[in-house]
User: What shape does this take?
Amino acid sequence: MTWTLVVLFVVGMIALLVNRSQMTGGFVTFFARVERRYSDGVVGIGMGLMMHVFRLVVVSLALYWSLWTLYGQGSSFSPLPLIWIILAAAMMWLLHRIMLFWVCATFSLRSEMQAYSNHYFGLWTAVSVVLFVLLIFGTYMESPRPILIAMVVVMGLYVLAVWMKALTVAPLSMRRLVYVPLYVVTVDVVPLVALFWIGKYIVTL
Assistant: This one.
């Protein structure tokens, strides 16, 4: 796990030095309206792919560490379950993108699709940076309980941010008050819960 954290730190530092807006924009997007676009947030394919890898591996490692702490104390911390969880997280991310596209197409939000995508990238960048810091502290703390609670709070704030952004697209109405929770549950909560249970199955094998 130490070497994984070191590699992730190097990747994060490279991304920060090459394009700092990837990190700062990730935290700013928590408080910005979903329509807003960032002119300085455009990155190259290589750097974008590097950030995808950083987000994916950090979230997978945080999930693995949490599940191993809760359910896998009798087993050793090995890279193979982490690889399986990374693959599962990649599949969940692909499912998330398909569901997001389906929602935007169904409700004629294709013009907002790119804005949604940019904000999702920003949200997950901020989440992955915070989870990375929590992982570093978690590896050195005798009791992992505070770190586990902090991770749950972070993911709860992510869901809350998505919910708040979905409400800013158009004026509120009774239909939107019904559709927005269904959207958040379908596109964000269900894939996260599914990833949690898949990860738990992998760790407890």
Observations:
- Confidence is low (pLDDT under 50) at residues 37-41.
- The CA atoms of residues 104 and 110 lie 5 Å apart.
- The helical segments are 2-18, 21-28, 45-71, 79-106, 113-140, 145-167, 174-203.
